Amino acid sequence: MIQRTQHETMGFSSYTRDDFAVSPLMFYFEVTQACDLVCKHCRASAQECSHPAELTTAQSKALIDQIATFPRKPHLVLTGGDPLKRNDIFDLIRHAVAAGLQVALTPSATPLATREALEAAKEAGVGSLGISLDGVDAKTHDAFRGWEGSFDRTLRMLSDVRKLRLPVQINTTITRRNFHQIDDMATLLSTQGIAMWSVFFLIPVGRGIDEERIAPQQYEQVFERLWIQAGRQPYGIKTTEAPHYRRFVLQRKGDPLAGPAAGQHPSRNRRHRAPLGVRDGNGIMFVGHTGEIFPAGFLPVECGRFPQDSVVEAYQKHPTFLALRDPDRFLGDCGICEYRHVCGGSRSRAYSVSGDPLAAEPDCTYEPGQIPMAELGVK
């Protein structure tokens, strides 16, 4: 049994909204775009081999050293592609840990993800893993991942990490293929000893352009099921690229940081959750495999390039980051919504649909002005 939730391991308890202006909470480093899967939603349109201009070991270590100079050290997520495709991945993990960073890894469910590899990651210093599961059965998941056997491999990985006592976050991408499986997925995950279920709502970018995202009203249906399951399950539940779930929870007089059954399960204790308002460019930062600096992996608006540009300078001073941290500059309903400071909509989805990262969230049904600001009760 996992003794610490992933959010305890991440150290979210000490991060506040006051830190947003100077330090990201989560720093995503895409160490490679190489991956042996062909996922339908892949942001990176990953390929079998790494790019010749991929950051070298020395450059990657220099980036890690620079990340560690933020006023508040962010949590570092080594992602891809498949990070296990890099021969130096365990060396990079050790370097990051030595620099004082907490490190998470997101391996793909391929034959590279052996128990030995996961154990090596833990020994190198990885504190948590992110593993993807996109369906309650092999038919759904394998079709989504583009590889027959991926579902079984994922369950084997989960068995291995339970034995290794590594906290795990399950990442599930919601599309029209699987949104009706929420309850069944929640039940399946209740047997897997996970710390957190992150439900990701599709952004039409990369290979995801060809995948069908759900309709705005279907978001509300999924939110309802997540809200109910958050009160039943022994793990935390959060949304990714659907910050309007916070609005949904607040409308029900709940705590978006805790869930309807706060106190029953440690994983939903408020002090372990990220502060409200975290979104693309606001507590989030991403560096691509060749050094591109983005506000998020799904928001490909280049704000510099490492090593020529400083990631600290980009986060703190680049006009795009500054605009993304000011909800009063958002357009349409997002700019006048009473929930804009705790939600703000998905900036990535706004950009992918309209071409403007400050545009209104296209997949939100809420009409602003339904409640006085004084009644919101969130600072």
Overview of the structural elements:
There is one protein chain. This protein folds into two domains: 6-287, Aldolase class I (TIM Barrel, Alpha-Beta Barrel); 310-375, no CATH class. The protein has 13 helices and nine strands. The protein has helices at 6-10, 57-67, 89-98, 115-124, 138-145, 150-164, 182-189, 216-230, 244-251, 311-317, 319-324, 332-336, 347-354, and strands at 26-30, 75-79, 103-105, 128-132, 168-174, 196-201, 236-240, 284-287, 293-294. Strands 7-6-5-4-3-2-1-8-9 form a nine-stranded mixed sheet. Helix 4 (115-124) crosses helix 6 (150-164).
Largest sheet: 9 strands, mixed
Can you name the CATH architecture of the largest domain? Alpha-Beta Barrel
Overall mean pLDDT stands at: 88
Question: Based on CA inertia axes, which overall geometry fits?
Answer: globular
Nearest-angstrom radius of gyration?
Answer: 19 Å
Q: Give the amount of beta strand, in percent.
A: 5-15%
Between the first and last Cα atoms, what is the distance in angstroms? Answer: 36 Å
N to C succession of SSEs: HEHEHEHEHHEHEHEHEEHHHH
Portion of residues within helices = 25-40%
Q: Can you identify the CATH superfamily of the largest domain?
A: Aldolase class I
Low-confidence parts, pLDDT < 50 over ≥5 residues? 1-11, 41-45, 260-272
CATH class of the largest domain: Alpha Beta
What is the CATH T-level topology of the largest domain?
Answer: TIM Barrel
- Total helical segments: 13
Query: Which structural class do you get from the secondary structure elements?
Result: alpha/beta
Strand order of the largest sheet: 7-6-5-4-3-2-1-8-9
β-strand number: 9
List the domain count as a whole number: 2
